[in-house]
Amino acid sequence: TCWDCCEFSDIVSPGDVAIYGGLCALATFNRSELHYFVIINTNFREILEDEPPIREAILNFYQSRFPACKQLLDRMRGRLLLDIYLAPHVSTLYAKIRSRGLVQYCIPYVSVDIRRMAQTFDRTVPAIEEELVRLILDGQIEALIDSVNKVLYAKKKDPKKTALAKGLAVGKEHLRSAQMLVLRVAMLKSGIEVQSPVEQIEDMQVEK
């Protein structure tokens, strides 16, 4: 087949992996995920060495230096649009990265000046306000907008509601564990042997 006559490196280079992975990480990871899966991940850090611009963009984003990150991504945009696989997704990825940036920008503050935010992200005030509304409706930002004074106010979290939500999550996990235990006991009583995935693999290797 055509796959037999070419190496994987002929299809995608380490630089491609750095760009594709880096952009997707910026578009989807929160700050802690970006730190764990990208910045301190030795394997991915080595891949990023092949593409210094995306590496620097990630570091700037993580350190909340959004103008510097945007500048690097803007410089890369023309080149990315020449990639036949990536080109159709560039605008969507950049929009998601900006949204992630807005979410991260808001986290430390009780109130945020929307006009200053618009300057930081090089957008008009109406465009930023519209995007903030969408993020609030999507549940990505818990805040209220004062459209007259152009200020975003973070919602005060109700400690009781937070504790209740955590309690419900723990309760669901315990219920699931109990149900799995009951099912396992019932299967054992019925004479059905239950193997872990590791045991199944070992059995398959023995059969070979």
UniProtKB/TrEMBL annotation:
Domain PCI intervals: 1-159
Question: Where is it predominantly found?
Answer: cytoplasm
Task: Show the SUPFAM superfamilies listed in the entry.
Answer: Winged helix' DNA-binding domain (SSF46785)
Q: Name one GO cellular component term.
A: COP9 signalosome
| Alphabetical UniProt keywords | Cytoplasm, Nucleus, Signalosome
Q: Where in the cell is it found?
A: Cytoplasm; Nucleus
Family per record: Belongs to the CSN1 family.
The identity of this protein, by name, is PCI domain-containing protein
Annotated source species: Dendroctonus ponderosae (Mountain pine beetle)
